[in-house]
Write a structure and sequence with these properties.
This protein is mainly α. It contains seven helices and no strands. It has helices at about 10-15, 25-35, 40-55, 70-80, 90-110, 115-130, 135-150. The longest helix has 19 residues, at about 40-55. The protein starts with 10 loop residues before the first helix and ends in an 8-residue tail after the last helix.
């Protein structure tokens, strides 16, 4: 009995072997330009989301008791979505803590308004001056939020 081996052409390996194409450094630069083109609209979305959170869940918001835990979680996740543009401010990490808080409130079935208010104040502060704060002060603020929300960071490898 004869065994016949058959290897189908692999399109990717064929493309890799062809001359030409784009250098990795050029592809990275193009990708960075593409991401940078989203900065302005992402920061506008961030500010709109912060304003909506304040309007619906802020200390002076009328009817905040009627809001849902899921709504706060969704708004917090919107901040996380554009967080790469403000990662030096800590806003993205504070939003993770806010989502954890919304989850915690949902699990217990009760709002912890003092904790929500602390998170909203921190988000406003971090958005306005977070990038200019010394890293240790920013981290201390985030650690305080994590304690309030019961967020546990994944173990670092």
């Amino acid at each position: 009995m004869n065994v016949r081996k058959f290897r189908p052409n692999n399109r990717l390996s064929t493309l890799i072997k062809q001359k030409g194409g784009v250098l990795a450094q050029d592809a990275i630069a193009a990708a960075e330009r593409g991401v940078e083109s989203l900065r302005e609209s992402s920061l506008a979305a961030l500010d709109q989301t912060l304003a909506e959170i304040d309007r619906r869940f802020g200390k002076d918001a009328l009817g905040r008791q009627a809001e849902t835990f899921d709504a706060l979680y969704l708004l917090g996740s919107r901040i996380i979505d554009v967080g790469a543009f403000v990662s030096d401010s800590g806003v993205d990490k504070a939003a993770v803590s806010l989502c954890t808080l919304a989850d915690d409130c949902a699990e217990t079935g009760a709002w912890r308004w003092d904790a929500v208010d602390v998170h909203l104040n921190a988000l406003r502060l971090l958005r306005s001056v977070g990038a200019s704060l010394p890293a240790d002060q920013r981290e201390a603020m985030l650690e305080g939020l994590y304690q309030v929300s019961h967020f546990h960071r994944p173990e670092e490898a």
